[in-house]
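Dear support,

We are seeing what looks like truncated structure output for some complexes. This example has two components. We would appreciate it if you could run it in full and send us the complete token output so we can diff it against ours.
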Amino acid sequence: SQQGEEDPQALSIQEGENATMNCSYKTSINNLQWYRQNSGRGLVHLILIRSNEREKHSGRLRVTLDTSKKSSSLLITASRAADTASYFCATEKTGGGNKLTFGTGTQLKVEL
Amino acid sequence: NAGVTQTPKFQVLKTGQSMTLQCAQDMNHNSMYWYRQDPGMGLRLIYYSASEGTTDKGEVPNGYNVSRLNKREFSLRLESAAPSQTSVYFCASRLYGTDYEQYFGPGTRLTVT
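Here is the complete output from our reference environment:
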């Protein structure tokens, strides 16, 4: 079963707007990671947030983690057409054996 | 560095045929993974190898076998392909331990007719 569930499943915004996508998970985790997938390509790692961290920034990306609610959000500020892609959260469960469990993803479309 | 490479990129099989998907990484990673991606399902783990010499089942192992040939290579075999195995297959690797990111290959698009 999927550990992470992303919300929304699809998101369409105008260039320059901010995009927010959310991820919920079910069990205790060591960390939560966000990945990006361009159409027809492999996934690329964006950012990792550890369970003892609440917020992390990387360029135009801001990730928050609320372990009490078992949820995370990814904010992309000032979106560009090149940000059009699918975004996946992935969790490394505590005692989970060196593997990640991926969510179902959010499809982001940024229009000019 | 090539990163994670996969062959072939595309494959069409008839039901009952067998094939092996190849994966190699040049980043000296201990752990390697095979996923399948189906529309609306995200990535599901088929098998993984936490370190050279070990392999373990993931979420959807039925119909597949794996071989960790050496530290660099991890292959996925379909012994008797079924239409339900039509999917995009991704190989990934990472260092062993906590708080490491995974690196993905470009994927193999497999169609079973």
